[in-house]
Amino acid sequence: MNHPQEQEITVGFFSFVGSNYSRSSTLLNFNSPGIQKRYVHVPAKFIKSINWIFKNRTNFAKLDVLVVMSPCHLLSPVLKIITRKPVILDAGWSLTDGTLSRGFKVRSLYKLPIVAGIDFISLHSANLVLVESILQRDRVQKFFGLPLKKIHVSYTGLDESQFKEELKISPTESDLVSKLKEYVNQKNQIVLFRGKVNKEAGFKNICDAARILTKQATFIFILGDRDVLPDDLENAIRLSSVSPSEMREIYAIADVAIGQISDHPRLKYTIPHKAFEAGYFKKAYVSSGSRGIKEIYKEDSVIYLSNSNPESLAEAILTLGNRKSKETFEDQIWLQYQHSLSQEVINGHFERLIRDCVNQPS
Question: Is the pTM of the predicted complex or chain greater than 0.85?
């Protein structure tokens, strides 16, 4: 018996920060059978974005579903009102959480209510909301009164397409990697940290651990352009603006990848991007024992620190100097990533949500 072929669905991904920004690129940059994906760049200013969407509304007539990419939450009510199409908000987290994670400041007194209001309107206007973890789902439901059936967990994952082997490294990039390899071969262990210099990352703890391991390890820090390393770190290399090709090569060099080494409250419900990178690149990963990351990786996949301090981190890194121990953690984190967190798995879940959204009244 012949089954009817599923109808091809066209999905528009809307953003004002770019197609490769944040978590939504994992969904956009994957070839899903039967689903055509289009990126739509919207002007950044709110009034301009409204005018632009209204003027171009006829161009969106052939789109079946509109996805608002993180962190452009405010586009959700605008698109819903103007197009009357099903809208999926790939939020990941609330904008309110993002504001709180940067620390309390005087201007937060007036900014927080505004941001919370934007969250409330954006979340409620969407047909479906995607968040980064189960704990984040519960948090969004509690604080914004959203029905649980409307909130779906979609792990952030990784846009693996940017790291494929066929993407050749340029001569300039190759020169950087060659110099790194020449330098790091002089040391015992290569420890990689990629992220921001902030309290959530536990940056001070990581630097102090590097000081403890001056003779045993070299630390590669991939930081933001404005982030700096302490001058007294003798065994540290600072990099910034690293291309995907370079990132792939640097992960190949590294023995250990470091996650967030702190007890920051946000880690109870958020999962760092680098946790997915470690799984994809099959690297032994050291992290604080926060609830967020434990949602995706079991105890045998990651070295979880009982105390988020420099001494515990240094001890964990030394433990991974044992080749058998390191390979065991590498195998386990890779297996769990491939089973539950790969770009293909995440998009399989997303594709089912898309089809359900099309088949339901908006």
Answer: yes
